[in-house]
Amino acid sequence: MVIARIKPIEEILGFISGKKSVLVVGCAGCTAVCLAGGQREVDSLIVDLKDNKGVIFDGYTMERQCEMEFVAELDHLIDGFQAVLSMACGAGVQFVAERFPGMPVFPALDTVFVGANREVGQYQENCRCCGDCQLAYTGGICPVALCAKGIYNGPCGGSRNGKCEVDEKTACAWCQIYERLKDQGRLDQIMNIKKPMKWKNQTQGTLVQRGYEKFQQD
Amino acid sequence: MKSGSNLEKVLNSGKFAVTAELGPPKGADPGVIKAKAGLLKGFVDSVNITDNQTAVVRMSSLSACALVSAGGFDPVMQMVTRDRNRIALQSDVLGAVSLGIKNILCLSGDHQCFGNQPYSKGVYDIDSIQLISTLKRMRDEKKLLDSDDTLTGDIGIFIGAASTPFSEPVEYRPLRLKKKIDAGADFIQTQCIYDIELFKKFMERVVDLGLHEKCHILAGVTPLKSARMAVYMNTRVPGVIVPEKLISRMEGARKGKGSEEGIAICCELIEELRQIDGVRGVHIMAIEWEQAVGDIVKKTGLFPRPKIRG
Amino acid sequence: MNIDTKKIKSMLDRKGRMKIFLSVCASCGACADSCFYYRNSGDPESTPSYKALNSLGIMFRKWKKLDYDDLTAMKKLIWGKCVMCRRCYCPLGIDISSAISWARTICRANGVYEDFSEGPSGIKDK
């Protein structure tokens, strides 16, 4: 899931400074699950922003902002507002902005990573969307997302007591990879040199799933 | 001969090699480089020029190499993959070779969060092992990564790599060293060694794997200046273990005599390292203390340095 | 807890088309196979048509008499047994997921929604 966190309130207030009416738009998808931008957070952001006297706030939460059919629910609501604060990930904010090109749409969240729910309220980064999954040979531990240098032939010399040189609380991903492969009897997986990555995420991504190409051309 | 560098010649001749480290200045004054190099003149076979070490911006390794090269030194250009992608790395390798730089040491580099630009975007397009194989391809096949176009000119490079024997997982380190050698490393410089017994165990494994015959291994040493530095190295620097007895020796040194004791310890370590099977030289990393190098080299009988023709 | 039935009515009125759609559901069950939730659980309440008829369908039928408990009961169905993947298929062309989605939106407008701060309900119920 996409993980996000709310921006500092001062930054949000800066975006909407001078606006007389603001629509706060929540997303009931990923950002609701990670407790950053669902209905609950829309309500509490409006409470926080209401100190800002003389400005009219309203809230609306849709299923997800990354689907145009849901974004379209705003069509009849948006008139009369001078700005929209989107509480979706970066994809959702852009879809809302695309739907209403004349309307200033501001992000209320910082989208931080693709991660997993470790515990309620606690999330861990797991994926950098590199476009060429390496987990097969690394024992299911991602060297791109979890190694500070994102190296393919680790560990570098910076591991200390199984921790990463950047932070003594953060595990060294390559130490973990080594241990897991060792336990599975698969150390041969990291004995050969892994060749330089052919980066495929350096141009604007679009994806049409197999079987849908024909549909796309119509 | 792969490069004809002085370091390569000394190592091929079977003589015990001595290299040292020189950190470029935080500024544009070539005089600093010349002064530091002057302190090393005649005491080393080759001098490593660090590449923005600890992620602090300094004069580039390439230009500092060109400066010491003009001063008659054989530089080892250190190259980290933190700051440049494969386009810039390969381009700088061609530029370095054209300037007469013959030794290149491939590293991943300290993470950018440690330096004075902590919010920079780390590149790490390729890692140190991939850089080694890239250099080997450029030298042996005259080709760039993923390209079949032939490069012009002679590309002689003596390819170096680092090894940190005591970083975890310790039992994987000799195998990772093997990966570096398989990738094309001609020489290895290790992280600084203080614990001889542990290092002997590492080298036994290296010799068992036959790696010492495929590649020249130089053991790293760093003279201690004080007991505080010994403790710091032991607890804070990954892959460095300073045995308790060396820390007590530094603590026992009389006031103002810490650096003397540090140099004495360093000389003893070198004597012991020379006896270890598979060790072909030492790499003296006297951090911002280039004056110490001459002392150490003289006291260990490694002076004068061999002059090898051809 | 009070709910605003007038607001519900006005929201329902905006989707009059959905009322017609739901009224033509023949309960043929063809949509069941398109729902991974149903296919995995075999639970008849997971059938897309069941979920739509017992949320938005009920809202259309008895909007005036709806109370908070009704919406809470729907919540278990339309959040607990649907991930809004939108792959449900109806041979009559009923847009089932839009109906469920609109039921969710109406619930949210009345303060009934999934609170993830207590963990995902699907896991909690087990």
Short summary of the structure?
The complex is a heterotrimer of chains A (218), B (310) and C (126). Chain A is an alpha/beta fold and 218 residues long.
CATH class of chain B: Alpha Beta
How big a fraction of the residues of chain C is strand?
Answer: under 5%
Helix count from the secondary structure assignment of chain B:
11
| CA gyration radius of chain C, whole angstroms | 14 Å
Largest interface: A-B, 30 and 34 residues
CATH-derived architecture of chain B: Alpha-Beta Barrel
Count of runs of 4 or more consecutive helical residues of chain C: 7
Gross morphology of chain C is globular
Compute the separation of the termini of chain B in Å.
10 Å
Protein described:
The complex is a heterotrimer of chains A (218), B (310) and C (126). By secondary structure, chain A is α/β, with parallel strands linked by helices. Chain A contains eight helices and nine strands. Helices cover 26% and strands 23% of the residues of chain A. Chain A has a four-stranded parallel β-sheet, sandwiched between helices. Chain A has a three-stranded antiparallel β-sheet with strand order 1-6-7. A two-stranded antiparallel sheet of chain A has the order 8-9. The relative contact order of chain A is 0.12. Chain B is globular, with a radius of gyration of 19 Å. Chain C has a single domain (5-112), classed as Orthogonal Bundle (Fumarate Reductase Iron-sulfur Protein, Chain B, domain 2). In chain C, helix 4 (48-62) runs antiparallel to helix 5 (68-78), helix 4 crosses helix 6 (96-109) and helix 5 (68-78) crosses helix 6 (96-109). Classes of the chains: A alpha/beta (218), B alpha/beta (310), C mainly alpha (126). At the A-B interface, helix 7 of A face helix 5 and helix 6 of B.
What does the secondary structure layout of this molecule look like, with pairings?
The complex is a heterotrimer of chains A (218), B (310) and C (126).
Chain A: E1 2-6, H1 9-15, E2 21-27, H2 30-33, H3 39-49, E3 56-62, H4 68-71, E4 83-86, H5 90-99, E5 105-107, E6 109-119, E7 122-127, H6 143-146, E8 163-164, E9 167-171, H7 173-183, H8 213-217
Parallel strand pairs in A: 2-3, 2-4, 4-5
Antiparallel strand pairs in A: 1-6, 6-7, 8-9
Chain B: H1 6-12, E1 17-22, H2 30-40, E2 46-49, H3 61-70, E3 75-80, H4 86-98, E4 103-107, H5 128-140, E5 158-163, H6 173-183, E6 187-192, H7 196-208, E7 216-221, H8 227-236, H9 244-252, H10 258-274, E8 279-284, H11 291-299
Chain C: H1 5-13, H2 16-23, H3 36-41, H4 48-62, H5 68-78, H6 96-109, H7 121-125
Helix pairs in contact in C: 4-5, 4-6, 5-6
